[in-house]
Amino acid sequence: MSQPRPVAVIVLAAGEGTRMKSRIPKVLHALCGRSMLGHVLAAAGELDPQRLVVVAGHRREEVTAEAVQYAPDVCVVVQERQAGTGHAVRMVTETLGDLPGVVVVTYGDMPLLRARTLAALIREHYAAANAVTVLTARVPDPSGYGRIIRDDGGSLAEIVEEADATTAQRAIDEINSGCYAFDGALLADAVKRVATSNAQGQEYLTDVVAILRGDGHPVGAVLAADPGEIQGVNDRVQLAQVRRAYNDRLLEAWMRAGITIVDPASTWIDADVTIGQDTEIGPGTQLEGRTTIGAGATIGPGCQLRDTTVGDNAAVSHAVCVQAEIGPGATVGPYAYLRPGTRIGPGAHIGCHVELKNAAVGAGAKIPHLTYVGDAGIGERANIGAGTIVANYDGTAKHHTTVGAHAFLGSNTVLVAPLTVGDGAYTAAGSVITEDVPPGAIGIARGRQHNSQGWVERRRPGSASAAARAHGAGDHGDEGIEGGEGTQPR
Ligand code: UD1
Ligand code: CA
Prior knowledge:
- By secondary structure, the protein is an alpha/beta fold.
- Helix content is 20%, strand content 29%.
- The strands form 6 sheets. The chain has a 19-stranded parallel sheet that branches. Strands 5-4-1-6-10-7-11 form a 7-stranded mixed sheet, with helices on both faces.
- α2 links the parallel β4 and β5.
- α1 crosses α2.
- Residues 479-484 have low confidence and may be disordered.
- The site of calcium ion has 2 residues, from loops.
């Protein structure tokens, strides 16, 4: 059976959340890349309600600003004084007027609740033509929750808060999740009749169940298929539990979609990340924000990628990348730091202890060792020698550097920006380059070597060095390395 579009979903988020011991409102604490409120609004949005309502009170400017991020059309209703969940809903019905249709109420601090669970609640509510349908759960430890009281026939009779419950009622293990589907018109009338004659002196939304039943309306309950979904967050211990549960859920979905996750226990993937098939995620990896990974890539071990794009078949290990783009087939790391505005071309290689910022690296270029490149463009297939530093900052302003295609920078080159090294040009190792190097030229900017013959015997007579000279000693072990690392024009 098709499910009716709710006339409203109301998210209660006015409470202070004292047990978080925080300067930021509870529902703004984040897990898996979104605030708790963001997760709840995303789930609520999937129900396509005519109105998405947030009840805000404590720190309402921040709560409102956050809500708008996820639901631009959100309607924020202010509850000045947190006088109970019934009072919060009354503020909504009194502000919005008639709500003819199904009204869903949920909480801003229940980020694990799935849209499909709320949809099942609405379907049952609609099928049974109830005035209210409560989402319930059976839990091993019901303490703190409202208990579901059923009559002799097993039908829902009322909800009793723990503070008001008898010992026998406290033994009941079926609890109120705090989520409900209501008939909007009946809800608006019933919340006006909620009393405050209870242990907490509050207007309890839970009392609406007994009120509607007393009026002769059908009321019902639906057991949550997964009781874990109704876990609320009251403190940071529960926040960590919920974060772990949400992460596990996301990782399982990725593994089922064809992604290898070597160590789920040490892998964290935010809700808005996307990953292509056959990509392997190594241990100790965090993929954050709007990070997008292509197919067949290898990420990790030990990576933190935030708002970063990685192309197909790229490999990134032990790297921190923020707002960077890594092209297909490129390799990054180990121990690389790609800062905002870094774009690595296809097949390029960024190696060990290399930091880049606002830098575009052409296809097939290599920056293998111990290098800083800031505010620069590196041409295709250029080779940047070990220890190269782009000196982009003169203490006042940042300047741009261009290195041409197939250029070759000797080890320990300093490029003092602004500067251009032409296509195919070289720099000599140890050069501090302050002027442009034309295409095809070599820039040499260093002291010329002078060897003082016999210096050791004159100035260090009797030393081991002098003795070594006298014996004409031996093997030099590591002879010249052909090509690749350490290669320098002489
Ligand atoms: C509530 C239910 C309880 C249920 C439990 C599930 C009532 C009376 N009790 O209890 O049956 O088992 O949730 O977690 O509803 N809020 C407002 N304005 C208020 C009061 C609360 O917006 O005036 C919001 C809070 O920010 C929170 C939510 O409503 O997000 C629940 O409030 P809370 O005080 O935590 O209710 P519980 O005592 O846990
Ligand atoms: Ca609570």
